[in-house]
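Predict structure. Chain length: 62.
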Amino acid sequence: MGKHMFVTGTDGKTRELPIDPKNQDRQVKEHRNAGREVTVLDEDERIRYGLLAEQMRRTTGR
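Prediction complete.
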């Protein structure tokens, strides 16, 4: 099962970036040092968060 890294920049936009499993800690540290918010999810968490986001969009009408 793979992992997914989501990085939110200072502009508030979130991007999904590839993770190098051997250098995950270094990658996360570099982004955090640059002032970005980093979230790392496994495949199951990514699916659950995606479903939750979809439910929230439907509920709020966005």
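Summary: The first helix runs from residue 24 to 33.
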